[in-house]
Specification:
The chain is of the alpha+beta class. It has 22 helices and eleven strands. The strands form four sheets. The protein has a five-stranded mixed sheet. Strands 1-7 form a two-stranded antiparallel ribbon. A two-stranded antiparallel sheet has the order 3-4.
């Protein structure tokens, strides 16, 4: 009975370790995955680059190109997908794609930047995993987009590891919120501004600014300065100095990150979507990913039958070989599983956003949240989040990040927040600057256009886009 229990514990530990490795590989971009594979090959003597497979693949491509063959008939044979076609392996590309290596210039994403900083901390494996998970939960503004209770539940489902709200809060405040830029990992603008103020020298203006944010934040956001002066019992000059301290702060951490010096680098999009005969075709852009296999030479290099080896040394060598081969096989299997997770996730996204991928117009984007895709591909939300946060897709109208495709629904299921934001932007850009449009008027205009949307929602989207209220947009 004790032996069976031990076996089950070892199996559970192995499964959890494989899940951790899968989540790590899923989060990597194509370029970073190539580096990870080369690192694994260097560290594990039982793993090697499969040059024969790469040569055979290249020969197939060249032969197909020279003979002007038609595309291989590897389309998915299922009625559910009859409006699409796809090729999972890159040796199934059409002849026009053979020597095309699409790249796009971009700056390191803020998630990648944070992960790089995270490696500078001396954390236990458990704490590092929690910190890495929390970074994956940050939204496009650098805010923590989920409740800590949801983090606890998702963490248990993903890694089969029980954590507490207190542990999550501890990692959030002592690790994530200590990363650069200041303000990462906060829950709202008020917390973001306070975090930055706490790092400033305690001058009278800073102390007053903290009081304003802590006790009178709503009055401050409404710019009711006369009321603030009365509530705080300060003169106009002191209030002005305190407000100036607040105005120097950054409401969204990512804005600060975008202004930081970072090296521009080339990336290879993880997916390629093309249009052929009116159908969307999805490819994994895995040409640059090295093919790996278990090294037969490694298995044979130990002279286990050498009579000069003691029984203890033979057993030690056998165990060394066994452990490394098992690790190599596990890594290869995880790579295959990563490919499946990425493809299924991207296919579900493509299926949902078919109109957008055919037109390239943001107004054709349908409402889509992480939960929608997670339910469709039977994955947890955190996995879909990891895929969407760090992946790019090459389309007929340019290379875009996957996170651009997600938006919440407004009123009707057919209207996305991105469509509403686009209309709000157009209205404000063309408004009379002497008499700018308040949120209530914007709301009425949208209703006249057939969009049922609340005024508070208009205000929320306007703030998300960094557009001030009408009174502050007024020009004399």
């Amino acid at each position: 009975m004790q032996k069976n229990t031990l076996s089950q514990q070892q199996q559970l530990k192995q499964t959890a370790a494989q899940m951790v490795q899968l989540m790590h590989l899923v989060e990597l971009s194509t370029t970073n995955l190539e580096q990870e594979i080369l690192k694994e090959v260097e560290e594990n003597p039982a793993l090697e680059i499969d040059h024969d497979a790469e040569i055979q693949e290249q020969e197939l491509l060249e032969q197909e190109f020279e003979n002007n063959l038609d595309d291989l008939d590897d389309y998915y044979d299922n009625d559910e997908y009859d409006s699409y076609a796809y090729r999972l392996q890159d040796n199934n590309r059409s002849k026009e794609e053979h020597y095309y290596f699409p790249t796009a210039t971009y700056n390191t994403s803020f998630q990648e930047n944070l992960l790089q900083q995270l490696h500078e901390y001396e954390l236990s494996e458990r704490d590092f995993l929690m910190a890495e998970y929390l970074i994956g939960c940050l939204d496009e503004n650098g805010y923590l987009s989920v409740d800590t209770h949801n983090v606890v539940m998702d963490f248990l489902l993903t890694y089969n590891i029980q954590i507490t709200n207190e542990e999550v809060e501890e990692i959030l405040t002592t690790v994530i919120q200590q990363l650069e830029p200041v303000g990462v990992g906060v829950r709202n603008i008020q917390e973001c501004l306070m975090l930055q103020l706490n790092l400033k020298e305690e001058t009278s203006a800073v102390v007053l600014a903290k009081n304003i944010l802590n006790e009178h934040f709503d009055t401050f956001t409404k710019k009711q300065y006369d009321k603030l002066q009365s509530l705080l019992h300060v003169n106009g000059e002191a209030l002005k100095n305190a407000i100036n301290e607040i105005l120097k702060l950054t409401p969204y951490p990512v804005f600060a990150l975008e202004t930081m010096d970072s090296k521009t680098k080339q990336i290879t999009p993880d997916f390629i979507i093309t249009i052929e005969d009116g159908k969307l075709v999805l490819n994994l852009n895995n040409y640059h990913i090295p093919k790996v296999k278990v090294s037969q030479e490694f298995k044979n290099q130990f002279e286990l039958h050498n009579p000069h080896l003691s029984k203890e040394k033979k057993l030690e060598a056998e165990q060394f070989i066994k452990d490394n081969v098992a690790q190599a096989k596990s890594f290869i299997g995880t790579l295959s599983l990563r490919e499946l997770v990425l493809f299924n996730t991207m296919y579900a996204i493509m299926d949902k956003q078919r109109a957008y991928f055919l037109s390239g117009d943001d107004k054709d984007l349908k409402p889509m949240i992480l939960k929608d895709i997670a339910e469709k591909v039977h994955l947890d939300i955190s996995t879909v989040s990891r895929v969407s946060n760090s992946k790019y897709v090459l389309t007929p109208f340019g290379t875009i990040p996957l996170k651009h495709l997600f938006s919440e629904s407004i009123g009707s299921d057919d209207v996305s927040s991105k469509e509403i934001k686009s209309i709000i932007t157009e209205l404000i850009q063309t408004e009379n600057k002497v008499k700018p449009l308040p949120d209530e008027v914007l709301c009425n205009i949208l209703k006249e256009k057939g969009y049922k949307i609340a005024r508070r929602t208009i205000a929320k989207y306007r703030e998300q886009m960094g557009i001030p209220i009408a009174r502050l947009r007024k020009e004399i």
